[in-house]
Every structure is written in C-alpha cells, then in structure tokens.
Amino acid sequence: MIEIRLIPPCRREFMRDVYHPGIISLSRILWGSTGAGLFLAFIVLVSESTGVGVLYAPLAATCFIGATCTYLRVARPKSVIVGHFVATVGGLLGVAAGETLLGGTAMVLPAKLGLAVLLASALMQILDADHPPAAATAAIPAILPLPAPALVLPLHMAWGAILAVAFGVAWNRLWFECPPPEDGCGRSWFNLGMQRADIVGTGACLAASLLMCARPWSIVVYQAGLWVMLAGLAVMSLHHFFGARVLVAEAATCGPLAKPATGGPGPISGSNEKEEKHER
User: How many H-runs (helices) and E-runs (strands) does the chain carry?
Assistant: First the structure.
C-alpha cells in the first residue's frame, strides 16, 4: 500500500525507511525535486562556462536519483562515476561495431543501439557500477552528435558524474549522512561508510574535475586532469577484484538422499488380525 506523508521537512522524514520510492513524501517532493533541478542546472552552467562537453539527458536522470533515491545502491559515488564512464566506452564501441557490421543497411541503427546498451550493461555489471541512467549514456552516441571528441567523451561524462555526486552530497548533508553508509561496510577514512579504495578514487576524480575546469585557460592543466581522472577511475573500477569471492558452481543445498536401511527386520507379511476383526 502506498503511504502518503504530508509532514513538513524534518530529519525524521529523510531517514532510510521513509525517504525512498514507494512513499509519497512532502519532504521528498520539495527537497528532492528542487535538488534534482538545481543539480542539472549546476552541471549545465559549469559545462557551458568551461567547455567540457557532456550528455545532459542521462545526467538529468542521475540528478533525479541522487536527489530523491539517495539510499539506493545505484546512487553511490562509484556507481554514478564509473557507470557513466564505462557506459560511454561501451556505447562508443557498440556504435563502431554496428557501423562496421551493418553500415549502409536498414539494420544499422538497431544494431548500434542494441550493441551499445549490451556492452555498457555488461561493463557496468563486471565493474560493480550498475547505474541505470548510464544506459542512456551508451545509447545517445548512436543517434545524436557528440558534445566532445570520442576519445575524451568517457572522461567528460565521468566529470559530469562527479559534479552530480559532489553537489548531491553537499545538498543532502543538510538533512542526513551522504553518501549513505554502504551495507556491510564499516567506517573508514573521514568516518565514511565507504571502502577506502572508493574514497581514494572519488577524491582523485574530484581533484581531476577541478583541473579539467581550467580548460578555457590552460590546455595543459585540463589534460593533466584527464590523466588524474583516468587514474581515479581505475582505482574505483578494479579494486573489488582483489577481494572478491569467486564461485564457478552453486554449492549443494541439500545433503545426499538417504539410503534405505538394510539389515533390519523384513516387512510384516500375512493379514492383520485387528483389521480382520474390524472388517467382520
């Protein structure tokens, strides 16, 4: 049953059990919707002023999730930043593959879109960076002009994603802890509920985004930012492989079937006297 909460904004209304999809909350409508709009406006303003081109449509969906669905796993910094980066890579590869295989035919557009989303989905799952809006990041290169050269577009999308994350953290921390602690993850540096590698990677990406903002004034600083961004993404994308538990077959959930007992008394033969008397 849908719950409608018309309680004015207060800290209770931003707790995990009520600030999520499935509950129509006045606080979530007011604060979350305002935040989503401001997030995207902020990204567009910075992008236009620095010349770091990004795809706005998928980042709009990211802004919505970051402002109104903050407790979901897909809203954590790693999912947002790495998700947009690898989805852009997968999308560009899918577009190139579709053009190579079916270029000049009526099937080229379906092939490019299908391969782009397929590769992006696979990469996001492999790198533990599931982020649904990034699927649009993968599909857009197949149908619209790119806002930046293909070689740097993945890093530009990571730049836009880090802006969304940074603004979201600053906005939401007025009411609750953000980023929310991850399930099963203890406190680490700065008392954050994130793995240390994710903190390092996010910090590197944040520093890189500042360097990339210098593009109108220094191309060298901008290029340095691209390399720092790539390093931060590598840390966030790969660290989970070093501690992952790998299964190649599902463990048996039931023990071996019990064998019938042997060596015991044989079955009773003959008629049962009590049953015979009852029948009579």
Answer: 10, 2
**CA dist., res. 74 & res. 51, Å (int):** 28
The range of the structural domain enclosing residue 206 comes to 3-242
Give me the amino acid identity at 259: K
Tens of pLDDT, residues 96-148: 999 999 988 999 999 999 999 999 999 999 999 999 999 999 999 999 999 99
In a domain, 227, yes or no: yes
Separation of alpha carbons 149 and 25, rounded Å:
42
Whether pTM exceeds 0.90: no
pLDDT of residue 107: 94
- Taking CA atoms, 268 is separated from 48, 62, 261, 277, 280, in Å, by 92, 73, 16, 18, 22
Cα end-to-end span (Å), the chain: 62
Counting Cα atoms < 13 Å in the Cβ hemisphere of 127 gives 27
Paired strand residues for 25: 5
> How far is C-alpha 63 from the geometric centre of its chain's CA atoms?
13
List, for residues 33-47, the tens digit of each pLDDT value: 999 999 999 999 999
Residue 275 within any structural domain of the chain:
no
Number of domains in the chain: 1
Tokens linked to 217 = 């004034």
pLDDT one-digit tens code per residue, 154-193:
999 999 999 999 999 999 999 988 888 877 776 777 778 7
Q: Give kind and range of the element (H or E) at residue 25.
A: strand 23-25
Instruction: Please report how many Cα atoms fall inside a 13 Å half-sphere around the Cα of residue 129, on the Cβ side.
Output: 33
Alpha carbon 5 to chain centroid distance?
Answer: 28
